[in-house]
Amino acid sequence: MNALNIPTITLNDETEIPQLGLGVFKVDPGETERIVSDALEVGYRHIDTAAIYGNEAEVGAAIAKSGIPREEIYVTTKLWNDRQGDAKAALSESLDKLGLDRVDLYLVHWPVPSQDTFVSAWEQVLDLREAGLTTTAGVSNHELEHLERIIEATGEFPAVNQIELHPEHQRQELTAFCRANGIAIEAWGPLAQGKSDLLTLPQIQEIGAAHDKSAAQVVLRWHIENGTIVFPKTTRRERMEENAALFDFELSETEHAVLTALEAGRNYSTNPRDM
Ligand code: NDP
After folding, report:
1. Which domains occur in the chain, in start order?
2. Alpha carbons 96 and 230: distance in angstroms, whole number
3. b or e along 254-265 (b: 16 or more beta carbons within 10 Å of the residue's beta carbon)?
4. pLDDT digits (tens, 9 = 90+) for 90-119
5. Ligand 1 centre from 154 Cα, in Å?
6. What is the pTM of this model?
7. Is the CB of residue 52 below 6 angstroms from any atom belonging to ligand 1?
8. CA-based torsion, 220, 191, 140, 171: positive or negative
């Protein structure tokens, strides 16, 4: 099985992450093994899952059956909110399900400010990195004030912050802080989770037509050109191929600016401050 030729981003711990992967949020466990197997066959080598998705075992089964050497596949999973006091046991359970002895990236999934245990969760994830159970330590859904607290408490900058990000929700202040501090940005919901009319906007379709690409490819290419890491979710093999065909065209400056101008401060999922 040949890997797609996907560029990598160098993280602040000097490791490399493929800039494109497959996300498996809301992928039914009964379908996950087939979907991840398809993605590996198509040439994806980066899978983004989480304990709460309930499909780590099926992700692991697909990886095992693929026969692809472990070091060639980048695997991310996440610490769920009710395990922030118990990260070591939580990651051990995830590793058992995945059938792996380490993940490449472990993320504190949400800060959950009402619970106020995210600093301790971050400290535990750093310990798990020292123990070799995750190669890289990162966070997800962390707002500026959460990043500032974990950095102040530990002196350690997360390698990534995985946040809701798409043309209608660009998080300028947060992403500027991350970029200035060497925290790579991973976009979740890069296609706005299919909840917006983004892919039917005439201006995006026109740009696609000019390059013989779909609206989804135009949006994903915009993320890639911003240096963002993406793992669009799809259950369909043909869309896995489509979503990975991003590296044979470029948006002009004007085209890129058309997408940037869609900023509307509009998020389609939970605001991390409200949890
Ligand atoms: P996405 O923005 O990736 O959108 C997925 C939707 O877009 C699905 O309905 C899919 O439908 C559709 N789609 C995919 N490709 C195309 C295409 N080429 N053309 C048209 N429609 C398409 O949303 P996600 O929420 O899934 O985000 C991606 C990943 O980010 C998740 O899978 C997960 O790994 C991660 N994530 C992390 C969160 C966090 O809190 N850290 C929260 C949410 C997601 P279909 O399957 O039918 O193709």
Report:
1. 8-260 (3.20.20.100)
2. 26
3. ebbebbeebeee
4. 999 999 999 999 999 999 999 999 999 999
5. 33
6. 0.98
7. no
8. positive
